[in-house]
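Appendix B, record 7
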Amino acid sequence: MLQHERESSGTAAMTEQNEQALIDAFKAMWGNYHEPTRLIHRSFRVVAGNATYLSTGGQVGGKCNATNPELHKGCRAIECLKTRKTTCKTSDMNGVRWDSYWVPVEGSEDYYVHFTNGMMEFIAKMSERKEQTK
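Structure tokens (predicted):
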């Protein structure tokens, strides 16, 4: 958003302030979590990612499913936002159990936290297989 647009719209500036406060809280709570974790807007825009997410090549600012839409077929983000309850999906990804969570952000109808326990194990397993085939 351009500076003059911010000045002419107090709501837009307030929204940016609120989003920055959410980002700061997210980083404080999830910054060191051992699985890739993202703060995501209702539009599926990744607003923030923890250190693990960024270390795996995760990008902030783009759509959360941009890198692999196939893996997001079971997405429960909309359910989470509509019900305001944490949702979970358990699946098997090449022999690794994935427990995916969508957690609504308290006090905001438009944001949720998303992470998958088991993802780092899966990434390690895939890296190991790749090394074995060299």
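Remarks on this record: The chain has a mean pLDDT of 87. DSSP finds five helices and five strands in the chain.
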